[in-house]
Design goal:
mainly alpha; Four Helix Bundle (Hemerythrin (Met), subunit A); single chain; CHAD_dom_sf; 12 helices; 2 domains; CHAD domain-containing protein
Length: 345
Amino acid sequence: MLGDMTRATTAAIAASGEVSPAAAPADAEAIAPPDARHMRHMSASRLLVALAAFPLRQWPSLPDTPESDAHQGAFDPEVIHQLRIATRRLRALIDVFSPWIKPRWHRRLKAELRWLGEAMGPARDADVLATTTLPALRTEHPDIDWPAIDAHVAKLRSDARAHAAEALASERQRALRALLLKAFGIGEDGHADRRTAKALRCPSRTPGKRPRALAKHAHNMLRARYVALFPDCRQLAMLDTGQLHALRVKVKKARYSAEALTPWLRKAVGTPYQGTLHAAQSLLGQLNDAVVAQRAFEDMPISAAQRDILIGRLDTIIVNATSRAAHILCQLPDAHTLERGMREG
């Protein structure tokens, strides 16, 4: 069953969105970012504000729970999922448009968004372990001491949720959202006004405010993110788990950069490029989930023989996911194709 997890992902991932239709806001069309043609004719600062407004409008409403009550872990996992997506998109935008952001704002925003993302990470890992990895292993190995494992994982999950809930209920989280709204000139009603954005640099200290300057920057960013994938993506079998995690980070950066800079990629190249990155990211994510599970099993109150069985099965999953990710990454366009697929302005 665990093997089926990786096989199913490759086929389904390109068609799947990061937010399910049920979770999408009712006014999704009203808060959609500008169309690609319009974006290519916008200045970088104006475009940055418009793109930042989108994830900030989707920032989930969090109950004003006192931090003293956060240990109950009362936050819906879907809220954590939506917030993780919003923080990832904002971090990508801040990274892509860094030449147009004041350095001190850039450092502060990235640090705070990294803090929030890391605070939610263990809760996500524990949820995947409990709801995906363990059920699959249980089907293949029913004779393992699952009651002991379930009790141990329930404690891990409870502690991780409490940690995430504490961060989400904190004044620091509320201050971060207020800081982001102030940085990009976005009112509580979601309306964006570039003139009130505090994080934007003076035009004279940026690569330029004309659309041509943004187009040049977009091309350079797309090239840099593409080149960073090599040579690791061509020699996955030689990488250890730490190096594979680093490659996953590079794949995510390439994907989110391409997503933010979609207007400068022709559809015939951009769509398969982003689809390949998405599929590879998901497989490397499954690989990472298996590594997380292996680490968790090291502290499980089970016999050494049972631990070896489970860790060995996860080793197989890691190898299979690595092989499939390598196959998918071989479908990346060559440098010449990517270059020809870039639009001028």
